[in-house]
Write a structure and sequence with these properties.
With 528 residues, the protein is an alpha/beta fold. The chain is built from 22 helices and 17 strands. The chain folds into two domains: 226 residues, Rossmann fold, CATH 3.40.50; 218 residues, UDP-N-acetylmuramoyl-L-alanine:D-glutamate ligase. The strands form two sheets. The protein has a ten-stranded mixed β-sheet, with helices on both faces. It binds ligand NAX, adenosine-5'-diphosphate and potassium ion. Its cofactor is Mg(2+); K(+).
């Protein structure tokens, strides 16, 4: 695989650090030096280093220790460094070193209003270094740190010249392992994270508060490489490794045939959009099976599509299907049964998710069935499974709910949203943030179902043979489909393909059809 971004849990990081610390490795010194180097780089990018005024927000643990030692380097680089101690006790060695180097220490908890005191101090500082808590945090910020961080977060965007916020390891207060945000968090421009990324830096909603993530190698790579990451994000290079590219001996049946049973007399467009997404993704053939109106539309728009039953290597079921339509849902059931019996991968979208809820087979799906709900659909699905869930519960903790649904159903779950989260019953979570909010438009999900279906069809024979790595392949392919779909949206909207590039540009509105049409352009950026 390519250079996938891997994140490990707090516990895994501690376990990896242990032998190094026991061997006397100066991990904190390395972390602090790297942190200072990144702060200097941010300052340099904005003008000057010497003379800059830096604020360290120092909590009671080693996270604060990292910042205090980094402060000593920053003083040496000519910065004026202030440390606001937001905990009664702080890292003693770090504090002594900081004082000795000339860092100005402020015991803000002695003030009548610590939050106001920190805000006052922060107003004079161009860089705020958030070192309140790291992987040792338990729950949302509490004690005096909570109002201090809340006040800074509120003031951040009101500054005449916005400060640069550098978070140490993680933005303090996020759910390090699950990406939840249950209390105040200061959004960062850059997070300098130690040893490896943490799941909360990739998973929504916390990922949106981390800014650019810079990983500092602390020598943990060897130990951590031996175990699967808790969460990861595919890069374009990973997707290139996964994408089926036809060779000279391939023909349409080896490239993959996708069966699409989507769309209805009421919603024929879903059939056309799922088909368009699949065809642009590249595969041997699309077989469309559905009622007259959508079938006519598909044939008219895509004359290459076959509309008679026959062999397929994967299915897309349910986009634009009304679950109240008994005859149609009976057909979907039949396709699903046949697919499961043949061990074929199957995408269950929209209407297929609803019909699953009444199906006793629901708990027995294989990981090669990929459910593609948005937050509302996932909440309904979980509720139907006996886990009372509201849409807001899902958006507050997308990864946890996607995983829960995967565990209950046995299927792979691709949860759509600003960040797409993919969870199989076991193995790493995937988080893909490749799109643009312009993608939130009717039919975009149908296109995604088609893209994913085509990709699964390319792997259909391998998956049916059972010789692949079980649960992990469908999840990786789902993440790959999300990346390509997201990039297609960015390109259609006139944005550069990679997220984070050209943030200032906002792009233009797009239709779902535009997204499908841009899939080849997205693949050009991936496959080169
Ligand atoms: N283990 C090591 O030697 C290394 C650790 N490093 C740094 O150390 C950090 C972990 O250090 P610690 O284990 O000391 O833990 P932290 O510094 O993350 O947090 C512990 C401190 O935060 C307080 N705290 C915990 N939960 C809180 C909450 N919800 N609200 C307010 N305060 C809370 C605790 O009372 C304690 O004072 C890493 O994130 C990393 O930055 C790095 O220096 C690399 C080496
Ligand atoms: N704010 C957002 N930013 C980026 N992508 C988004 C955002 N909101 C939704 N999306 C994406 O847009 C698509 C919408 O799909 P879906 O909700 O199924 O719509 P529909 O059912 O109309 O096709 C999904 O791929 C989802 O991940
Ligand atoms: K922090």
């Amino acid at each position: 695989m390519g250079p996938m971004i891997r994140a490990h849990s707090a516990a895994a990081v501690r376990a990896a650090e242990e032998p190094l610390l026991a061997a006397g490795e100066p991990l904190m010194a390395s972390a602090a030096f790297a942190l200072a180097t990144h702060v200097v780089a941010e300052l340099r990018a904005r003008g000057r280093v010497a003379g800059s005024v830096v604020l360290l927000l120092v909590g009671g643990g080693n996270n604060g220790g990292d910042a205090l030692f980094a402060g000593t380097h920053l003083v040496r680089r000519g910065c004026q460094v202030h440390a606001a101690l937001v905990s009664d006790g702080v890292h003693e060695g770090g504090l002594a070193a900081a004082r000795a180097a000339g860092v100005r220490v402020h015991r803000v908890l002695d003030a009548a209003d610590p939050a106001a005191a920190v805000v006052d101090l922060a107003r004079r500082c161009g860089v705020w270094v958030d070192a309140v808590t790291g992987i040792g945090a338990r729950g949302p910020l509490r004690g005096p740190a909570a109002p201090v961080v809340a006040a800074l977060a509120a003031e951040r965007s009101a500054w005449p010249q916005e400060p640069v916020v550098v978070a140490v390891d993680v933005p303090s207060g996020i759910g390090v392992d699950d990406g939840t945000v249950e209390g105040p968090v200061l959004p960062a421009d850059v997070t300098v994270t130690m040893g490896t990324a943490k799941p909360g830096l990739l998973l929504p909603p916390a990922a949106g508060l981390a800014g650019r993530v810079e990983v500092v190698a602390l020598g943990l790579d060897g130990t951590l490489a031996a175990e699967p990451p808790a969460a990861c994000s595919l890069t374009a290079a990973d997707v290139a490794d996964l994408w089926p590219v036809p060779g000279p001996d391939d023909h349409k049946y080896t490239r993959g045939v996708l069966g699409i049973a989507a769309g209805s007399q009421t919603y024929p467009g879903a059939a056309a959009l799922a088909t368009a997404g699949a065809l642009r993704t590249g595969l041997g053939m699309v077989r469309y099976l559905g009622p007259e109106v959508p079938a006519d539309l598909v044939r008219t728009l895509h004359p290459e599509v076959v509309t008679v039953p026959g062999r397929v290597q994967a299915w897309v079921l349910g986009s634009g299907v009304d679950p109240a339509d008994a005859a149609r849902t009976a057909e979907l059931h039949e396709h699903l049964s046949a697919a499961l019996a043949a061990r074929l991968p199957v995408v269950l979208d929209a209407g297929a998710l609803t019909l699953l809820q009444e199906d006793t087979r629901l708990p027995d799906l294989p990981a090669t069935a990929v459910l593609t709900p948005h937050a509302g659909e996932l909440a309904q699905l979980l509720t139907a499974c006996g886990e009372e869930t509201a849409r807001e519960d899902v958006t507050a903790a997308p990864a946890r709910h996607a995983r829960l649904a995967a565990e209950i159903t046995g299927a792979t779950v691709l949860l759509k949203g600003p960040t797409t989260v993919v969870a199989a019953p076991a193995g790493p979570l995937f988080a893909q943030q490749d799109a643009t909010p312009w993608l939130a438009t009717a039919g975009a999900g149908d296109v995604l179902a088609g893209v994913l279906g085509a990709l699964l069809a390319g792997y259909g024979d391998l998956i049916a043979s059972g010789t692949h790595d079980g649960a992990h392949l469908p999840a990786s392919l789902s993440a790959a489909a999300a990346l390509v779909h997201g990039r297609a949206a960015r390109i259609a909207a006139g944005l550069p393909p990679g997220p984070g590039e050209g943030r200032a540009r906002t792009g233009v509105p797009i239709t779902a059809g535009d997204v499908a049409a841009a899939v080849p352009a997205a693949l050009r950026t991936v496959l080169g």
